[in-house]
Amino acid sequence: MQPVWEKETIATLVKEIDAPINILSNPGNAGGVPLSVRELQDLGVARLSLGSGLMKGTLALMKKVADELSEQGTYHILLDTLTPLPEAVKAYKLAIR
Question: Where do the domains of the chain lie?
Fold first, then answer.
């Protein structure tokens, strides 16, 4: 099965298939920037999945933090990610439920 990224193709699938259409939005595999949530909603897509994209993003952030720490001895990228701190704490608490 071929990946589908083009607006026109997605619109055709939504129109022609008598079932909810789910889209796997994985920026690393799209060959570009995937359609926005609003664009997909406007096309009639029923469900959006990020697949492994969140994990890939997490690993990329970990590498950036490790590189900065190793090369510069600082952790500004990590601090920027945790700012504002109350929001980061709230996200952490939700994740460990």
Answer: 7-49, 53-95
